Hints:
The structure is a single chain. The protein contains 11 helices and 10 strands. The chain is of the alpha+beta class. The protein has 2 domains: about 10-165, Sandwich (Jelly Rolls), CATH 2.60.120.10; about 175-280, Arc Repressor Mutant, subunit A (Orthogonal Bundle). The strands form 2 sheets. It has a 5-stranded mixed β-sheet with strand order 1-4-9-6-7.
Amino acid sequence: MQRGGVSSAPVLDLGRYLGTPLQRVEVAGLVLTESTYAPGVRLPSHLHRHAGFRLTLEGGFMDVVEGRARECVARSVAFHAPGLEHAQRIRDVRTRTFNIDFSEASWRSRSALAGRLDPRADLASARLVALAARVYQEFRRADDVAALAIEGLTLELLAEAVRASAPDAGGAPAWLGRVRELLDAVRGPPPTLAALAREAGVSPRRLGRAFRQAWRCSPAEYLRRSRLERAGRALRETERPLGDIALDAGYCDQSHLTREFRRRLHLTPAEYRRLAGRASGSTR
């Protein structure tokens, strides 16, 4: 939502989306919707009144939430919190999504779990995708016990999302936090795993295993995300030249920055800057 004022973006009600609906089912305080989107379309900034999960069935898109970009590829799951403004750019292929929306009463009844779910987290969990796919199968099956199955699976889905959104770093050793700080500070060539391990005083194998357990990714993937986030923040919040942003974020040059944005977000940095500006209510 636009800071410092009331957003003028449209608010979509329970089970409503900007795509073309293919099928819609209501089950025990849930609304399940399958929708399709034309290739290359840009969806304007909007909000959802209710919380929900989205399984991308095919195709994909780039989602900009509060100016932060995340790529939603086929067979991935994302959570959208109520009242959170975002804009989307559909990839140049036909895209289908399956959405599970919670009514206000249904969401409140699950508040013990729902309150622990971080809407900004990447839900990178194979089990989460498998659960969402099973909900979709029951949605398509639509027999006399599908409603019961959907209700139970959705509760499992919510529990798994809470687990996936909370990095297991509470009991992590101090050296692991130091490694993360070193990666956040990288502005030139990336360090090797062996060099990070020497700084931490552990073996490369132990470092790799502990890092993945705590942050749910490898050190290399964390560094890629960190660079992308630094560059994205600068693109959202400043008018600095792309070359300067690239170097400060740790890329070799502007071409390197552009290649990474195209590969990971399917946008150029300039396109991202425009889309992020619209999603945050900027008139830049």
